[in-house]
Amino acid sequence: MKRFALVALLAAMMFGIASSASATELKVSGMLDVYGLWSANLRDFDSDVSDGDNFGATQRMRTVFQFLANENLKAVLGLEINTDWGQGAGGDWGTDGTDATRVRWAYIDFNFPDTKINTKAGLQAISLPAVFGSPVFSDDAASVVVSAPISDMFGLTVGYTRGADRNDPNDVIINRKTGEFTDLPDQDDMDMVFLLAPVKLEGFAVTPYFAYAMVGENVNFTGQQGLDTGNLDYKNYLLDDSTIWVAGANAKLTVFDPLTFAADLIYGVGENDDYETKGWYAALAGSYKFSMLTATLFGTYGTGASDEDDEDNFLPTLAEDWSVGAYLGGKRAFSTGWSDTGFFTGTTETGSDGTGIWTVGLTLDKISFVDKLQHSLTFIYGQGTSDEDANVLFDENDSAWEVYMVNKYQIYEQLAAINELGFFAPDLEDADDADNSYFATIGFKYNF
Question: Per the domain annotation, does 9 fall within a domain?
Answer without folding.
Answer: no
